[in-house]
Amino acid sequence: MTQTIAVIRGDGIGPEIMDATLHVLDAMQLGISYEFVEAGLAAYEAQGELLPAATLASIAKHRIALKSPLSTPIGEGFSSINVSLRRHFDLYANVRPAISFPNTKSRYQDIDILTVRENTEGAYIGEGQHLSADGETATLTQKITRKGSERIVRYAFEAAKAAGRKKVTVVHKANILKTTSGLFLRVAREVASRYPEIGFNEMIVDNCCMQLVMRPEQFDVIVTTNLFGDIISDLCAGLVGGLGLAPGANIGAEVAIFEAVHGSAPDIAGRGIANPTALLLGAGQMLSHMGREDDARRLRRAIVATMEARDGTTPDLGGNGTTQGFAAAIAARVNG
Ligand code: ATP
Ligand code: MG
């Protein structure tokens, strides 16, 4: 049976890393076909719109999209396309694995942390923003709901269960932010009590940052609110060697979009040296989401083996390979 996904080749290094990623997926013979749609600068130049209706319709139809980084045109008045997509499809869970890979310059080995960030509430709702007339006082509204907290914590536990993970850590600041973070923590405890087979602990966000840097191996799955999750997931990416290896998924009840965390890297675009690994790992998250855990594992194993052998690795990993050459080296290992 063939499944179709929406594919956005994106801007900057986007087309290069997407071609590389699809080359590897094709080599895996997954029976997945692609509908190519546009967004970002490419869409703006071709169709006069950053996020065309046909693109939204394709994503809604196939319910799964693989997306390269997008640029917004320079100038005022353009809002982030990623935020638009998140709002349009109510993509409430931002899921970012941070996994150690061989032969990187990272400080740690053996890290395997999944950060689950609530993506629609908290400090980022854009409500109640007020600056007093004299410009001396600024305020902002944070919003936490039972429904929003419940679904993100449930997502974290379900993800833990599906991946055979052992522990979920809820990260909060309920001692100070008593109403908002307090509600999140209470709901997290309730949800956790329904998953007795999975360990659960609580950590205050400042301590969590210190623990992540000092003893990252104690973490398995982290679930937290929007602002804390934004910061912690980047911290985790830094623990394992940075942007070229950091994928992310944006997941809603109907639609899920998989991507690399990094941007369009205009400084190296068109030179064929971008590292495709982050997007490939995003494709791995996509396969897990489709229930194809064996294929996801096969893909990750091939990436690890290729990095282990330093076969065609790109300059950011200390090699002198190309995007396509590295992808070909990975593709050669996916069936072995
Ligand atoms: P944008 O405006 O789209 O966010 P940016 O340049 O601000 O782009 P990134 O694209 O995230 O931010 O890039 C930050 C740095 O990391 C750049 O020097 C870029 O070349 C490098 N970089 C990002 N992604 C990759 C990659 N996949 N392979 C190699 N280098 C990368
Ligand atoms: Mg950037």
TrEMBL record:
Which GO molecular function, any one, fits this protein according to its record?
isocitrate dehydrogenase (NAD+) activity
**Which EC number(s) does the record attach to this protein?**
1.1.1.41
Q: Which Gene3D superfamilies match?
A: Isopropylmalate Dehydrogenase
- SUPFAM superfamilies cross-referenced by the UniProt entry: Isocitrate/Isopropylmalate dehydrogenase-like
Q: What's the superkingdom here?
A: Bacteria
Annotated PROSITE patterns = IDH_IMDH
Give GO terms for biological process: isocitrate metabolic process; tricarboxylic acid cycle
Q: Which UniProt keywords apply?
A: Oxidoreductase
Tell me where in this chain the Isopropylmalate dehydrogenase-like domain is found: 4-330
The UniProt entry, under InterPro entries, shows: IsoCit/isopropylmalate_DH_CS, IsoPropMal-DH-like_dom
- Record family assignment: Belongs to the isocitrate and isopropylmalate dehydrogenases family.
This protein's name: Isocitrate dehydrogenase (NAD+)
Q: What organism is the protein native to?
A: Chiayiivirga flava
- Top-down, what is the taxonomic lineage of the species of origin? Bacteria, Pseudomonadati, Pseudomonadota, Gammaproteobacteria, Lysobacterales
